[in-house]
Design brief:
8% of the residues lie in helices and 29% in strands. By secondary structure, the protein is mainly β. The chain has two domains: 201 residues, no CATH class; 145 residues, Single-stranded right-handed beta-helix, Pectin lyase-like (Pectate Lyase C-like). The protein binds 2-acetamido-2-deoxy-beta-D-glucopyranose (4 copies).
Length: 384
Amino acid sequence: MGSLPMISITAALVFLSYFTATCFLLVVHCNATSSTSTYNSNSSSINSSSSPLPLPPPPLSGNTTTTVQHHHNWFGPKGSCLITVDASGCGDFLSVQAAVDSVPVNNREQVLIQINAGTYIEKVVVPVSKPFITFQGAGRDVTVIEWHDRAGDRGPDGQQLRTYNTASVTVFGRYFSARNISFKNTAPAPMPGMEGWQAAAFRISGDNAHFSGCGFYGAQDTLCDDAGRHYFKECYIEGSIDFIFGNGRSMYKDCELHSIATRFGSIAAQDRKSVDERTGFSFVGCRVTGSGPLYVGRAMGQYSRIVFAYTYFDDVVARGGWDDWDHTSNKNKTVFFGVYKCWGPGAEAVRGVSWARELDYDTAHPFLAKSFVNGRHWIPPSDA
Ligand SMILES: *[C@@H]1O[C@H](CO)[C@@H](O)[C@H](O)[C@H]1NC(C)=O
Ligand SMILES: *[C@@H]1O[C@H](CO)[C@@H](O)[C@H](O)[C@H]1NC(C)=O
Ligand SMILES: *[C@@H]1O[C@H](CO)[C@@H](O)[C@H](O)[C@H]1NC(C)=O
Ligand SMILES: *[C@@H]1O[C@H](CO)[C@@H](O)[C@H](O)[C@H]1NC(C)=O
């Protein structure tokens, strides 16, 4: 990774301005060139702001009427706060997890965790008790959080981790966001057919999360889009097999989906399990690049929903384009796989099976705007 920037006067001013709001860390003066500079983890004032305030409502049901009602009595974060993480010791914390740990339980502030350029080799968890956290890197090429767990590896209890617990970064809290940062799982890519090599870079299990300018790097199962409503804008997502998977309700806008598959691969495996669930993945204005042959979607759940709209496909799409997962449970009769105004040399193959339909405008419409994830209520216009 590149060299670390000096902390400029401008940065210091931005830093200080955040502290006009109630905040729980002290400003540190630091000479960025000194690797021996200390960082202040004094958190004695943390509890002062953590009086029990009402949390935002629980995750919303699939009921639009209820959604609107919830937003009328939603309190939102109160005040804001900046924490810096710097691998060379020139911030409030050396590790991202230490910064997350410093946020009070039942946090009510908007917490911006600014992660300076560097590679942070650690496994990070944002617990459900810590909403309103943002990870802001210095650029997705220079700020990286990485770890290397695989599904077959043993956890502390001696049991195999399994795919969902391999993520280098896992977020359970609501109203999480990330900007200009990359997440990697650096475990080696499996050869086709190898068991236990699933290795996620990121798992998002919290509702109302948005990401912009982020990178997600792995091979099999890179991005676990597990649960809740999510919005990914201008992100780069790389992997080989099912490299976006889970049961989230998510929109991917203007993202690059890059395959590193060697013999065959697949982009999205969506796990909607019943007609009542409003989950699904919508890819709008994306670019599909890399190596193939590649299925664009797989029916992980019986009622899997995946739509590609206005998306460019390189000549990497496998014959048929889509996969029904197990060839036995008639998922080809229950899934919703759609294509709308896609283009590029691979686009024709995405229409390769009768059960992946070319949508008309009315059918495509619900998948094209951020209302698919109720984004108007929680995605700031600058990130939408
Ligand atoms: C921590 O901060 C408190 C309150 O600001 C201060 O009184 C105390 O001396 C600090 N302790 C250390 C070890 O810096
Ligand atoms: C903050 O609260 C935690 C538990 O809620 C407690 O263990 C800790 O001692 C408290 N710290 C201070 C500085 O009051
Ligand atoms: C949606 O909410 C409305 C009003 O609260 C309620 O009458 C209706 O039964 C709900 N529908 C579902 C499917 O939960
Ligand atoms: C649908 O899947 C079943 C097996 O689950 C298979 O027998 C059938 O041929 C498939 N139909 C189409 C149209 O692909």
